[in-house]
Amino acid sequence: MNDQVLLDVRNLKIYFPAGGDWFAQMFDRRKIKAVDEISFSISRGSTFGLVGESGSGKTTTGRVIARLIDPTSGHVTYNGKDLTGLRGKALKRMRRRIQMIFQDPSSSLNRRKTAGQIVSEPLRIHKLVDRKGLEARLIEVMELAGLSRRFLNRYPHEMSGGQRQRVGIARALAADPEFIICDEPVTALDVSIQAQILNLLMALQDELGLTYLFIAHDLSVVKHVSNNVAVMYLGKIVEIADTHTLFFDPKHPYTRALLAAVPKPDPKAKERKILHGEVPSPIAPPSGCRFHPRCPEMIGEVCRKKEPGEVTLSDGARVSCHLYSS
Amino acid sequence: MSAMLLQINDLITRFYTEDGVVNAVDDNSLYLNERETLGIVGESGSGKTVTALSVMGLIENPGRIEHGKILFKGQDLLGKSEKQMQEIRGKDIAMVFQDSLSSLNPTLTVGEQIGRVLRFHTKLSSKRIRHRVVELLKQVGIPEPEKRATNYPHEFSGGMRQRALIAMAISCNPALLILDEPTTALDVTIEAQIFELVNRLKKEFGMGTILITHDLAVVANSCNRVIIMYAGRIVEEALVDSLYERPLHPYTRGLLNSILRLEEETQGTLFSIPGEVPDLIDLPDGCNFSPRCRYANERCWQLDPQLEEIAPGRRAACLRVNDIDE
Amino acid sequence: MIDAAMNKDQLEETKLGMRPHRGLLEEFWHNFKRNKLSLVGGVIVVLFFILGFLAPLLTPCNPVKQFDALRGEHNPLPPLSRSKEGHLFLLGSDKFGRDILARALYGTRTLLELAVGAIAIAFVLGVFMGAVAGYTKGSWLDELIMRAVDIMLSFPTLVLAIALLGAFGIGKTHIGPIVLSNMVKIMVVIAITYSPRFARLMRGVVLQEMTEDYVAASKVAGASGGRIITREVFVNTMPPIMVQASLMMATTVLTSSSLSFLGLGLQPPRPSLGIMLNEARDFLFLGAWWYAIVPGVFISLVILGFNLLGDGLRDSLDPRQARRVQR
Prior knowledge:
The complex is a heterotrimer of chains A (about 325), B (about 325) and C (about 325).
Chain A: E1 5-17, H1 22-27, E2 31-43, E3 47-52, H2 58-65, E4 73-78, E5 81-82, H3 88-97, E6 98-101, H4 115-125, H5 131-144, H6 161-174, E7 179-183, H7 191-208, E8 211-216, H8 219-225, E9 228-233, E10 236-242, H9 243-248, H10 253-261, H11 301-305, E11 310-312, E12 318-320
Parallel strand pairs in A: 3-8, 3-9, 6-7, 7-8
Antiparallel strand pairs in A: 1-2, 1-4, 4-5, 9-10, 10-12, 11-12
Chain B: E1 4-17, E2 20-33, E3 37-41, H1 48-56, E4 63-72, E5 75-76, H2 82-88, E6 93-96, H3 100-103, H4 110-121, H5 126-139, H6 145-148, H7 158-170, E7 176-180, H8 188-205, E8 208-213, H9 216-222, E9 225-230, E10 233-239, H10 240-245, H11 250-258, H12 298-302, E11 308-311, E12 314-316
Parallel strand pairs in B: 3-8, 3-9, 6-7, 7-8
Antiparallel strand pairs in B: 1-2, 1-4, 4-5, 9-10, 10-12, 11-12
Helix pairs in contact in B: 4-5, 4-7, 5-7, 7-8
Chain C: H1 4-16, H2 24-34, H3 36-53, H4 55-58, E1 81-82, E2 88-89, H5 100-135, H6 140-153, H7 157-168, E3 173-175, E4 178-180, H8 182-210, H9 213-221, H10 225-261, H11 273-280, H12 289-317
Antiparallel strand pairs in C: 1-2, 3-4
Helix pairs in contact in C: 2-12, 3-5, 3-12, 5-6, 5-8, 5-10, 5-12, 6-8, 7-8, 8-10, 9-10, 10-11, 10-12, 11-12
């Protein structure tokens, strides 16, 4: 891992129209502010964890970087080049470098294709190997993902959840990418398989020099795999720091609440502190600081009226909270 | 010494699929005392949900309860007719399922659905039922209960839907409450809220509770006793404190070791149990866990271990339980 | 003391399982065979296709040949009676002295040709439109296609077919250098009438499939829209479309028979089951039951066959969740 920035996200906004189709949109101008101006960067070879609960915007961010959705405004730069403006052939070339692993292994594999057909798609699309080299590369990539060649002619329903996820990983590796967006890759898996897959992802990063954007809602998983972590709430990054700092010295009240809510596998542990209330709707986020209605450490009126700006603290953590602004 | 609320003896539930016979619950016995919370922990294929469904009498073709007794307050539920079971379900024994969206009828308001349960089991007038529904929604912490009772399930967030299901379950003051992975699909802060709610209700109403989950952390904080299931069999049973202090079965150890812990410094390669959960139609010879067990020897591959009482209240199904030292 | 080699083998076994590995086609056939009704439907359909295909071989005589009936002109002869020439009418004769069985067999042939042709065209048209509409969901193209579909669907099918045929006229039509025979015209008219249903269904299924992550994965892998639709989504849309096609064959048979019955379909002396029914009306109360029953039974059985087949396909193409029990 070095300091060379591979992916840079600046002032990213992703708004969706609240109304359904073009007709409804004429009457309902409201917008769902899924991502409301976030900025972060990822260094080559590192893992960046993006944590948040439902409605935080973390999945949408991942999809924009994967160019599945277009942003409303802001810039995403990959290796110095603008990513969001790419079209056509240039975009297709970029697709070799940036890949994605999806959450639901049942949905992310075409149920009427065999593992071999699924994994060979990227190779075919980019014409990376000829007929002879195809099988060799397929086996190579499957083995990297921990699957023997006997799985090549299997259909997804003939495999377990963990095996399907490995197929998804093999597919992501097929075209030899540099950057992989991992969208909740272990959430849908059994506990004993989660550890296997996480170990696999970490080993692959070491072996192939990959860079990861790791999206998850499970803090313990994120802590284990990430070098740096950003915590999102209702479309905004509330705190961003290197892993150690974030987990051992959390600054933002939401981060602290998240950490306190994680159940500990220890009967003697104290009862968890409860964060009350529901996540508000992204159509009409609360005024001022979005977290203020649920914040156990709210200072006063300023939290209700004014959105906190981002402050960089001495240990490198960046926080958006009035507790820290001057 | 509280009375025994539920006693399951030698339960065998099988599914006759066209690929073969699935031994979903393979000769298991367990018990639950009044006011006690029992955790049943297992991954997919362990048989934990089928056990609960067997208690509720909800096993349908191609499944069959082949053998055993399920004694609820001394009466054998397996000897009861469907009509008798309908009286019991929702009134004496209540169950909350995992997927709250599909557990609720999308065409009825939440208030109507809870009302139906009350109308079936009690002789309250419609007015009293409406009153009780609002009361129940308030008890489970749903804000603006009068208004919310007229909402449809899709207008509720995931956490609120789960609360509504809990309200439905406790509406007739059941003696036994079964929760099947109630928070798997929920965010961790909402999960914490739900468990706080359940703990409060347990104290208030004194229900016996069975909590089915794959999450060992959650069990540590909410249960008195724990049962670990693997491939249709109970492999370990203990008081919560004892289990986490000194797990006996290799599978339990494996699970505990694979858990990611927040408090610790970064762990290197995670411990993971190799292999996959076996296919229930084609279980290995000998111990079901032996192919994945690092302590397995010749005997383990040939002999099926029985669940034995190692110490009072402590059972384990492992031939080498006394040989393994940490 | 672990025997590493033995443990590893057992590990591999747990990974792969001992279930027989079946290809998709084998899986489908296996499920299809288990459904009794669909087997019956399939047999009926295949039987009638064979009858139609082999009609020239199976017919006892030329279907338009008029034999000399024994009892004066315009009186149909009952089954198993003979003409003056000695020809045995296995299923009786019609009012012109023609062999009913021969006409029924040829009528089946043309009927099935018509139905298959019409559905094939409707399929191609409808699936294409539906796929385009689904993939470009929300765009003006989607709106355009779907409103056209809505308009067409608001007409009762028979009325629409009659209107279109009326516009084209009966008999051969000349469009510039192209000559469309009557049969082709009817085929096209029926196809136009039924393609909206395919389009709507296809659009729905495409929309459904596009919410799945494998479509997103394909995009991320660099696939173009066309490739995604043809190489990924299409194969998953076929099951409900195939079911629909089979059921629509049944309706097509009914519609084209109705058109013939009304005199708008194939023109005499071409044998047509619908025309036979029309002719039979005058003789219903004169005791010539075979005149109406034979074409009636043929039409009914063909429709029944396609319906049963469609139902059976629906059951056997559905993902069979009951096989997997994971609790």
